[in-house]
Specification:
Layout (H helix, E strand, L loop, with lengths): L6 H5 L7 H15 L10 H15 L2 H10 L21 H6 L2 H5 L1 H4 L13 E7 L3 H4 L1 E12 L14 E3 L8 E8 L2 E8 L8 E3 L11 E12 L8 E4 L16 E7 L6 E3 L2 E8 L1 H6 L1 E6 L5 E6 L8 E4 L15 E7 L7 H9 L1 H4 L6 H14 L4
Parallel strand pairs: 1-9, 11-15
Antiparallel strand pairs: 2-7, 3-6, 4-5, 8-9, 10-11, 12-13, 14-15
Helix pairs in contact: 2-3
């Protein structure tokens, strides 16, 4: 039997090669010797298998450390089991851009499966808050229903601990392995044990409350803080408030609370900035005025309208918008001026307005130039 070659020599690397150099060398050589690319070469399959074995060892930190210390004679025998390396199912496409780590990590995953502590499932709920919360923040409490550790058997699955035994199908690991062969390649597939449903235990006298699962549907209250500046779609993570792990073999999952912020009577929102429209009469636009309106921060806002303002002008009030998350600053309030025309005009008023038509009416002289001026003014106007 020929002597097994040094893994570094197989990949054409020095012992000090980085992980990136190992990955690049394997991709290059594996593409060259892949059996699909060399159907007429009887040595391509064995060469490709040798390359893949070398990469599997050198790309795993623990296995590489063992190999650097003991070479091919590591205590405990081959890390691939008594049958040695059986190859890997990897396509040409994987070699050009696939996740090699995900493909090769399966070989050594089983070594820690005995200590596997599966986390419980995460949960997500949606919670609505009023618009004012975006300014002030608040403390909230919700009630949810989730699979929680059974309080009758304390998560053991049975009130009698002696009736709970290790699953013989997986030796208590909760995981089983099988080898699948695809063409000339083989791969190991790890999945939940069907005998114990991944729990690692067989319950002979199951708890009546949870049926032996160690978990039962229960309601519980969760308190949480909504920060100022929150926006719709933000998810708050409540660690450990998700579902309990199966058979008390791990930590509970997390609860994600997705916030939906309600609307306001007149404000629209753009991040931390607020936008509103303010109806103003023609005389106030022409002569200028100040308008005082209530605001969500508890103080009034005074909007100062300069004389000669036009409908569509925007007045910005910095520092009066919503809080910026992660900062002590606030956004701005943008006020768009709208011409507020009376819905009804008496005959007397119409006559008075007609008498002032030369001032209030449309001057058609040089109309084209004034259209251009208005467009320029509108695009560049931003009164502060």
């Amino acid at each position: 039997m020929p002597e097994k070659r040094d893994y570094y020599e197989v990949l054409g690397l020095s012992r000090g090669a980085s992980k990136e150099e190992i990955r690049k060398a394997y991709r290059s050589l594996a593409r060259k010797f892949h059996p699909d690319k060399n159907p007429d070469d009887p040595d391509a399959e064995s060469r490709f298998k040798e390359l893949s074995e070398a990469f599997a060892i050198l790309s795993d930190d623990d296995e590489r450390r063992k190999y650097d210390t003991f070479g091919h004679n590591s205590p405990g025998g081959s890390p691939f089991g008594p049958g040695g390396f059986q190859g890997v199912n990897i396509s040409i496409d994987d070699l050009f851009g696939g996740d090699l780590g995900g493909i090769f990590s399966q070989f050594f995953r089983s070594s820690s499966s005995g200590n596997r502590r599966a986390k419980g499932s995460d949960l997500m709920v949606r919670h609505s808050v009023p618009f004012q919360t975006a300014m002030d923040g608040c403390e909230e409490e919700i009630e949810i229903e989730a699979l929680i550790t059974c309080d009758k058997c304390e998560g053991e699955g049975s009130k009698d601990p002696s009736s709970v035994r290790q699953c013989p199908g997986c030796d208590g690991r909760g995981r089983t392995e099988r080898v699948e062969r695809i063409g000339p390649f083989t791969q190991r597939v790890v999945s939940d044990c069907p005998s114990c449903d991944g729990g690692g235990r067989i319950v002979q006298s199951p708890c009546k409350s949870c049926g032996g699962s160690g978990r039962s549907n229960q309601t519980k209250k969760v308190r949480f803080s909504v920060p100022p500046g929150v926006s719709s779609g933000v998810r708050l993570r409540m660690k450990g408030h998700g579902e309990a792990a199966r058979a008390s073999r791990g930590e509970p999952g997390d609860l994600y609370i997705e916030i939906d912020v309600g609307g306001h009577d007149w404000f629209e929102r753009d991040g931390s900035d607020l936008l509103m429209a303010l109806p103003i009469g023609y005389a106030d636009l022409l002569l200028g005025t100040s308008v005082r309106i209530p605001h969500i921060d508890g103080d009034h806002i005074t909007v100062k309208i300069p004389a000669g303002s036009n409908p569509g002008d925007t007045i910005s009030i910095p520092g009066r918008g919503l809080p910026r998350q992660g900062s002590r600053s606030r956004g701005e309030v943008s006020v768009v001026l709208k011409l507020d025309l009376p819905s009804r005009v008496s005959r007397a008023d119409k006559k008075r307005i007609s008498e002032m038509y030369d001032i209030l009416g449309t001057n058609e002289e040089n109309i084209q130039e004034r259209i251009k001026d208005e467009a320029y003014r509108r695009r560049n106007s931003r009164v502060r």
